[in-house]
Prior knowledge:
Number of strands of chain A: 14
Distance between the termini of chain A: 26 Å
Order of helices and strands of chain A: EHEHEEHEEEHEEEHEEHHEHE
Number of domains of chain A: 1
Structural class of chain A: alpha/beta
Shape of chain A: globular
Strand order of the largest sheet of chain A: 5-8-2-1-11-13
CATH architecture of chain A: 3-Layer(aba) Sandwich
Oligomer: homodimer
CATH topology of chain A: Carbamate kinase
CATH superfamily of chain A: Acetylglutamate kinase-like
Largest interface: A-B, 39 and 39 residues
Amino acid sequence: MKKQQLTILKIGGKLLEEDAKLEQVLQAFVSLEGFKILVHGGGKAASALCLHLNIVPKVVKGRRITDAATLKVVTMAYAGWANKTIVAKLQALGCQSLGLTGADLNAIQAHKRELETVDYGFVGDIDCINTEVIRQLLELGIAPVFCAITHDKKGQLLNTNADTIAARLASALAPFFETRLKLCFEKQGVLKNPDDEQSVLERIRHSEFKLHQTNGVISDGMIPKLDNAFYALEQGVSEVFICGIEGIANSKKGTQPCL
Amino acid sequence: MKKQQLTILKIGGKLLEEDAKLEQVLQAFVSLEGFKILVHGGGKAASALCLHLNIVPKVVKGRRITDAATLKVVTMAYAGWANKTIVAKLQALGCQSLGLTGADLNAIQAHKRELETVDYGFVGDIDCINTEVIRQLLELGIAPVFCAITHDKKGQLLNTNADTIAARLASALAPFFETRLKLCFEKQGVLKNPDDEQSVLERIRHSEFKLHQTNGVISDGMIPKLDNAFYALEQGVSEVFICGIEGIANSKKGTQPCL
């Protein structure tokens, strides 16, 4: 039997900060056919709130260092304001959405990252996705909206990168659905020349990624994004796109990583 | 056919602020038999956060005045920190909990309160409880955890009193379940003498409530609480208790309002 289609859309960065852009993103999400899941970050709002509260945000290698005070702020900003604003807007568009952290329904279980050279604090590395409960929600016609918070099932909330959550959700659900992952952000895709917004790569192979990483064409936040994209493909996700708003509904816009 | 039992437990005030008390409350909640729903406020944490952010909290007749900045703060404090902390702790206790606002699953639809003598701002008066979706969750073995945020289905989040949410949930679900409502707070029940913690009224009839209100024995925050309690009884809720932590598991502790 042919598997049903599932799209997992991750939105991040500036798309969350401008009302008009968020509205566009959510309308495109609602118009997607088949089962769908939204995953969102909310980094800059959390950083702004930290500043207001005199907590200095720390970021090492693109990952936020999450002390107890920062965990409280990111939980408030992601699971509180960003998540519920998105859910209310989706409901207004007629989409039966449900906001979730990994703690809700024990949907995403993680463990606090082990001490390495850097102590990331209350950052969670995912152990397990509760595919059964997520499938139950999808079958009920519900569109889950995940924010970047997980838990350890021992009562501790944890901060987890939203791209990683999206890639792990897609990978875990790939056996049950024809799964498509879209990592959507403020640019139109992976740029060959960071200064030229039009230089979007149509496709990127894993070997090219390694090459571009070495020669410095691809750097910063794009490396973990592409790592997540290739991880998902290796785990059986059908298609991955790195794209801007236009790429949500149109698969010809954006960069398609390929193994 | 005999209806199945549902307990709706509302917790508020100081019970949310002390870890040891919250732990006790949640253990008692988990041990309740039958279907169950938790409803929580979080007023003092929100007020503290408002102060940190230089937003002066305003309260008139026991109800918070919710301007746009305050709505953001209460959504962060209630739907973000309080709700997800509770959900993570319940998951640690083996309870399959799911944190919700009224926007999630369109569970509680409200409208912005009409201008009267006071402009309450983004405060929602409840129009409708989505009993179908809540029953689906309960049938799946899920314990919903509601915070004091609703929405208008047009994209606007709204602040709604947690006692009122609990009473309206109980009333709406009373046709489907043998429904019990517990309004739990830091005192052991309704006190005959506010200075004597032991002077708990075992029962209070509606006529006595009116009398005690006139003679000033019952005042302040207790009046809307009892209004909600009697409303629920009038709507077919089987039993209502106003109680402290001990009253969650033991119905002999606390005050039972009766029509």
